[in-house]
Specification:
Layout (H helix, E strand, L loop, with lengths): L1 E8 L4 H18 L2 E8 L5 E9 L3 H10 L1 H4 L3 E9 L4
Antiparallel strand pairs: 1-3, 1-4, 2-3
Length: 89
């Protein structure tokens, strides 16, 4: 099951994102369930959120992944949505 995780950062938390980025990227690599990922950008080209496509067994697994993301543990996100996604292209 593919799940799109769409997270938006809290305002003025770019430093939190940068401070936890290495741990976040290591988590992505170590879990082996991320099909695609990258930061959302604001109008100035600065990172302001995340789009992560997870390939997991079910929504509970996606929620577990999201809860254990170092960005989430650092309190970076103002909101996180998990939405089932169907790859067409």
């Amino acid at each position: 099951m593919l799940i799109a995780l769409i997270a938006k950062d809290k305002p003025n938390h770019l430093d939190t994102r940068k401070a936890n980025r290495d741990d976040h990227l290591a988590y992505i690599k170590s879990t082996g369930v991320v099909a695609q990922a990258g930061p959302l950008l604001d109008s100035d080209g600065q990172m302001c959120g995340s789009l992560v496509v997870l390939d997991v067994a079910d929504m509970a697994a996606a929620q577990n992944w999201a809860d254990n993301d170092p960005y989430a543990k650092a309190g970076l996100f103002a909101s996180v949505e998990l939405i089932q996604w169907n790859k067409v292209i």
